[in-house]
Amino acid sequence: MRTIKSTDKASTAWTLLKDRYEGKGFFLIDQCVAEFEALSFEKTRDVASFNALFKDIKVKIDDNGLKIPISYYIMKYLRWIAPAFPT
Predict the structure, then answer these.
(1) What is the DSSP letter of 22?
(2) How many domains does the chain divide into?
């Protein structure tokens, strides 16, 4: 109610609510983390495709304000990509 109490127009209220709540919060962070954890090289079996997915998900996580150390990304990446380079 605090967001829309300053207006009596429905269209303005919808705009205010959309601006305040759309694409924000813990829900989006949870979605990004779940997407990251579900990432698998086995699904693509192509290094270039996997790299693109990995980078896209990392950007989403960063854009949503979750601060994950780069060392974590490196370790996860190396574990996931290991089957492509067995030696």
Answers:
(1) T
(2) 1
